[in-house]
Design brief:
With about 325 residues, the chain is α/β, with parallel strands linked by helices. The protein has 10 helices and 15 strands. Strands 8-9-5-10-4-11-12-15 form an 8-stranded mixed β-sheet, sandwiched between helices. Helix 5 runs parallel beside helix 6. Bound molecules: adenosine-5'-triphosphate.
C-alpha cells in the first residue's frame, strides 16, 4: 500500500486489506481498492465505506474511489460427453452439489441447448433476476448458483439454435454477476461438433471432464470429446464412468448391462486420469430426475460423488502445476 501520512488512519479501517493506494492531492483523496471477488452490491458497499471513512479525515473535502476491475479468480470446468444420454447432466448437478458441500462456492452454467435439464435436476425453476443485461444466478436449494439456457427460452426453442446463437447465449451466462463464485461447472451439449467447439472456445475452461458409459461405442465418442478439448488446448482432467454395473435392489445380484471398467481402460490407453465410476441405479435416477440430488444427502451415491469431486480438484491442482 503506498502511504500518504494524511490518510494513514485508513490503515486501521476494516477494508484496509483491500486498499492498494491512497493519495491526498490538495483536498481530494484518491483511494484505489481491490474489489476482486465482490458482487455488484458488495462493490457499492465497499466504495461507500471507503468514502465515509476518508471524508472525515482532516484536510479532505472530496473522496474519489477507484475499484480495480480485475476479474475475480475463478475456475471454469467444462463437462462434456461424446454422445447424449450418458448421464452428463445428472453427474454435473451432483458434482456441483458435492463441491458445494466441500465448502466451495459453486456455480453451474447449463449450456446444454439440446436438453437443458439443470433447473429440474437442481429444483430451481424461477427466472433469474437481471439488471440491464447483467443476470444474477439463481441460488438452488443445495446452494449451487445456477444459470441455464432453459431459464432464457421456452422449452424446445433452444433446440433449433445454431452455433452463433448458442455462443451468444453462453456469453450472457458467463458474463453474469457470479459474485464470489470460485468454480463454475459448464454442462455442455453432448457431441463433438462445431457448436460444442465454439462453446468451449467461448467458455475458455481451465479443464474438462468427460462422462462416458462403459460400452465401446460410448467410449469411441468419449475419445472424440478428448480430441476436441485437445484441439483447443484445454487439459482433460479425466473420465468418469457412469452406469457401470447394476445391483438388483430385490435379489442383490450384480450384473454389468453395459460392461464395466471400459472407461478406466480407455483412460489408461489415452493417458488421461480416471476419476471414478457410478453404478446404474434406479434410486439415483429417480431422486435426480425429481430434483433431489443424491449428493446432497447421505449414502453411497453421495460418497461416490464427493470422492470424484475431490479427484477433480486434485487433477486441477496438477494441471496448474
Ligand atoms: N447412474 C445412473 N443410473 C441410472 N440412471 C441414470 C444414471 N445416470 C443418469 N441416469 C439417467 O439417465 C437419463 C439421462 O441422463 P442425463 O440427462 O444426465 O444424460 P445426459 O448425458 O446429460 O444427456 P443429454 O445431454 O443428451 O441430455 C436421466 O433420466 C438420468 O436420471
Amino acid at each position: 500500500m503506498s502511504d500518504d501520512p494524511a490518510l494513514s488512519a485508513l490503515d486501521s479501517s476494516p477494508d484496509a486489506a483491500r486498499i492498494r493506494s491512497k493519495r491526498l492531492v490538495g483536498t481530494i483523496a484518491t483511494i484505489v481498492a481491490d474489489a476482486s471477488g465482490l458482487s455488484t452490491a458488495e462493490r457499492t458497499d465497499l466504495e461507500k465505506r471507503l468514502k465515509d471513512a476518508a471524508i472525515d479525515l482532516p484536510g479532505v473535502v472530496e473522496v474519489r474511489v477507484a475499484l480495480t476491475a480485475s476479474r475475480p479468480e475463478r475456475t471454469v470446468i467444462a463437462i462434456g460427453s461424446g454422445k447424449g444420454g450418458v448421464g452428463k447432466s445428472t453427474l454435473t448437478a451432483n458434482l456441483a452439489v458435492a463441491l458445494a458441500r466441500m465448502g466451495k462456492r459453486i456455480g453451474l452454467i447449463d449450456a446444454d441447448i439440446y436438453g437443458p435439464s439443470q433447473p429440474t435436476l437442481l429444483d430451481a425453476h424461477q427466472k433469474p433476476q437481471a439488471e440491464g443485461s447483467k443476470m444474477f444466478p439463481v441460488t438452488t436449494p443445495s446452494g449451487v448458483r445456477l444459470l441455464s439456457v432453459g431459464q432464457l427460452v421456452s422449452p424446445g426453442t433452444a433446440l433449433a439454435w445454431r452455433g452463433p446463437m448458442a455462443t451468444s447465449a453462453l456469453n450472457q451466462l458467463i458474463d453474469a454477476d457470479w459474485g464470489d463464485t470460485e468454480i463454475i461447472l459448464v454442462d455442455l451439449p453432448p457431441g463433438t461438433g462445431d457448436v460444442q467447439l465454439s462453446l468451449i472456445q467461448k467458455a475458455r475452461p481451465d479443464g474438462a471432464v468427460i462422462v462416458s458409459t462403459p460400452q465401446d461405442l460410448s467410449l469411441i465418442d468419449a475419445t472424440r470429446a478428448i480430441d476436441l478439448f485437445g484441439k483447443v488446448s484445454v487439459p482433460v482432467l479425466g473420465i468418469i464412468e457412469n452406469m457401470a454395473g447394476y445391483t438388483c435392489p430385490h435379489c442383490g445380484e450384480s450384473s454389468d448391462p453395459f460392461g464395466q471398467g471400459g472407461a478406466e481402460t480407455s483412460a489408461t490407453n489415452l493417458g488421461v486420469p480416471f476419476l471414478g465410476r457410478l453404478p446404474l441405479s434406479a434410486s439415483l435416477r429417480e431422486a435426480s430426475d425429481a430434483g433431489r440430488p443424491p449428493a446432497a444427502e447421505e449414502g453411497p451415491a453421495a460418497d461416490a460423488f464427493s470422492k470424484i469431486a475431490a479427484q477433480i480438484l486434485a487433477q486441477l491442482e496438477k494441471v496448474r502445476g
